[in-house]
Amino acid sequence: MNSEAVLDDYLEQLLGEAVPVAATVAACAPAPAEIDAPKIDPPGREPTWDDLPDEVIYETGEDTAALLVHADSPSLQAAFEAAAEPATVDVAAAPVLPPRTSSRTASVPIDEAVGPATTWRELQEQARNPAHSPPRRAAERSTRWLRLRCGSQAYALELLKVQEVVLPVPLLPLRGTAPAMLGIMNLRGQVVPVMDLGIHLGGAPVDEDAQTRIVVLEEHGEIMGLRVSAVEDVTNLGESQIEPPDTARICRISNDIFRGVARLQQQPMILLDATRLLA
User: Domain CheW-like spans what residues (predicted)?
Assistant: First the structure.
C-alpha cells in the first residue's frame, strides 16, 4: 500500500467521524426564528396561577390577591391565606397583681366614716334603748297678741281674731242699744257695729284723739268693731307667761271676757277673749 492511499483513508476516517457530530449539533441548534418565538405550552395542559413565581404571589396586595384566587389552584389559595394572616408573636402575659387595699382605709372604724363618733354612738344607743334617750324639752306653744290701751289700762287681743285696725270714721247711731254700742260703720260695703271697749268693760268711755283706733274682730262670720285709746304693737306670749284668770283682781270685773293676765316689763296686761266679745 502506498503512502498516499494510507493518508487518504486516514482523512476519510477523520472526516466520517466529524460529519455526524456536526449534523447532530446542527439538528439540535434552534433556528433563528425559533429563538425569538415565545414559548407555547402543549395544547393538552391549561395554565394555572401555580405557574406564577412565589415572589409575585407574596408581593401582591390584599385587594389584588382576592382577585387572583382561582378555584383550580389550591396551592395559590394556601399561599394567599398564609400571606394574609398577621404574624403572631408569643408574648408572655404579664402577671396581674391583685389590687392593694389600704390598711388605713380598712382600719377606719365605722363611727369615724359616718360622722362624729359621739353623735353616731348616741344615735345607736338611742335606737337600741329608746326608753333611755335623753329627755327633750317639749316645745312651748306660743300665740301672738295685739297690744292696745283703754285709758291707762293695757289690754291684748289674740291676733288670730283681729281682721284689721282702722281709723275712726263717722258712725250711724242705733236706737234701743246698750250704752257701749256707739253705732255702725261702713267698711268697704260691709256693715260693722262699733262698741266702746272702755264702757263695755265697766270703765270710762274712750276719748277720741289722734291715737284712737277701731279694732275690727272677725270669727265665723261674726264681726265687731272696738274703739280703743291706742294700738301699740304685737307680742308673742307663751303658755307659761299667761296667768289664769282666777285672781281676786280679775274676778271683781268679769270672768267671761278675760282669759288671763300677762306681765311685760313688770306691767300687767289683761288678755281679752275675742269670742266672748263677739257673742
Answer: 142-279
Which grid cell is 110? 365605722
CB 260 within 8 A of CB 271: yes
Sheet containing strand 162-166, strands side by side: 162-166, 213-219, 222-228, 190-196, 181-187
Residue 142: partners with Cβ closer than 8 Å, 6 or more residues away: 236, 237, 238, 239
The 10 Å CB-count burial string (b at 16+, else e) for 179-199 is ebbbebbebeeeebebbbbbb
Characterize the bridge pairing of strands 213-219 and 222-228.
Answer: antiparallel
Q: Taking the domains of the chain in order of start, what are their residue ranges?
A: 3-83, 142-278
Please tell me the distance from the alpha carbon of residue 32 to that of residue 184, in angstroms, as a whole number.
Answer: 150
Q: What angle do CA 185, 148, 243 make, to 5 degrees?
A: 130
pLDDT per residue as tens, the chain (279 positions)? 556 676 677 667 766 655 554 445 455 555 554 445 555 555 556 556 566 555 555 455 555 555 554 445 565 566 556 655 555 545 455 555 665 555 444 444 544 444 444 555 665 566 566 555 445 555 668 899 999 999 999 999 999 999 999 999 999 999 999 999 999 999 999 999 999 999 999 899 999 999 999 999 999 999 999 999 999 999 999 988 888 877 645 555 556 888 889 988 878 899 999 999 998
Fold of 142-278: OB fold (Dihydrolipoamide Acetyltransferase, E2P) (2.40.50)
